[in-house]
Write a structure and sequence with these properties.
The chain has about 350 residues and is an alpha/beta fold. It contains ten helices and eleven strands.
Length: about 350
């Protein structure tokens, strides 16, 4: 059961049902034993109201079902035989289909929440000046947030990337703000050597950090870096600066090795997330871990490749990142003071 639970959730946290209405759905009940347990668990987790919804159940079982506040049942035959008798197709649902459906539901939920945040005007397009260059970014700061994460994306990506925006939406759900940033101008991106100019990218990231701190006007919160691919190398390079104020760093499928000897100077707690099937990058991350002196953890997402395109893998990475940033950016009891 634990193995199946881990596979279904794909790194997502259990839904919080405290004070909410919970609908327990089954394909039909005979004795009702598993449905009773499910309703009891929902109640134990703090559900304010529990509703059981089934297409078919014996009349006697439905009448004696006391574990739910309400029962919705389409058919209650007095001479019940078996649930499968009431289906044209009663073939089992495979685990792979369940994983796909849950993953699609999670993405839909995050998109809805992101649209709601945007509708409330919490998201704004910003422009950051670094010398003669103007960098474009998207800033989202939920009400009363105590931590903001700056995204440093890698090659071939941008602040509009669906992957970046999905991860950002997970951070928003956790109460964190985000600044999705393009470290290169459109003209600079044409030259591929700029994508691997880690010193340049880190300098731009530092300028964005200074801009963000100046914009907050006495805001007491903390700032974190989320880097992907070459952006992870830039994030760690910037975090190694003597006066860096970054409180935590997360790398997803990143190239921390590109920060070179500066890895030993990073003081911010760092989480390295790598796909289990991204073998070359995984080896580079193991090597980088050995060079770092700051609190560092390497998390491997099974079955994931470099872009985390496999079902559930990006959600797993996003949840790991949110947990890390909540631990080090937010005040106690969830923050690092706890």
């Amino acid at each position: 059961m634990e193995g199946r639970l881990a596979r279904y959730r794909q790194g997502r946290n259990r839904a919080d049902v405290q004070g909410r209405t919970v609908v327990v759905v089954d394909d039909g009940i005979a004795t009702g034993s598993t449905a009773r347990v499910a309703c009891q668990v929902a109640r134990h987790l703090g559900a304010a109201r529990v509703i059981l919804a089934v297409p078919v159940a014996p009349a006697r079982t439905a009448a004696s079902f006391k574990e739910a506040d309400e029962i919705v049942c389409l058919v209650s035959p007095p001479r019940f035989q078996a649930v499968g008798y009431y289906y044209h197709d009663f073939s089992p649902t495979e685990d792979d289909e369940v994983v796909r459906l849950l993953d699609a539901a999670a993405h839909s939920l995050h998109r809805s929440r992101e649209e709601a945040v945007h509708a409330e005007g919490a998201e704004e397009e910003v422009e950051i000046t670094d010398g003669m260059v103007r960098l474009r970014g998207t800033l989202c700061r939920p009400a009363e947030c105590k931590g903001i994460v700056i995204f440093a994306h890698g090659s071939g990506s941008s602040r509009h990337s669906p992957r970046n925006r999905f991860v950002a939406s997970v951070l928003h759900d956790a109460g964190l703000g985000t600044l999705l940033l393009d470290l290169l101008t459109p003209a600079e991106e044409v030259d591929r050597t700029n994508v691997f100019d880690i010193a340049l990218l880190a300098e731009r990231l530092g300028a964005a950090t200074a801009w963000l701190e100046a914009q907050q006007d006495g805001w007491p919160g903390r700032i974190g870096y989320f880097g992907a691919s070459t952006g992870a190398g830039a994030a760690l390079w910037a975090a190694a600066e003597p006066h860096a104020t970054v409180a935590a760093v997360v790398s997803r499928g990143g190239r921390p090795d590109l920060a070179g000897p500066r890895l030993a100077d990073v003081q911010a707690p760092t989480l390295l997330i790598v796909g289990g099937n991204d073998t070359e990058v995984l080896a580079l991350n193991w090597q980088a871990t050995a060079l770092m002196r700051a609190p560092t953890r390497l998390e491997i997402v099974p079955g994931a490749t470099h872009l985390f395109e496999e079902p559930g893998t990006l959600a797993t990475a996003a949840t790991l990142a949110a947990d890390w940033f909540c631990r080090y950016l937010l005040p106690s009891p969830l923050g690092r003071d706890a």
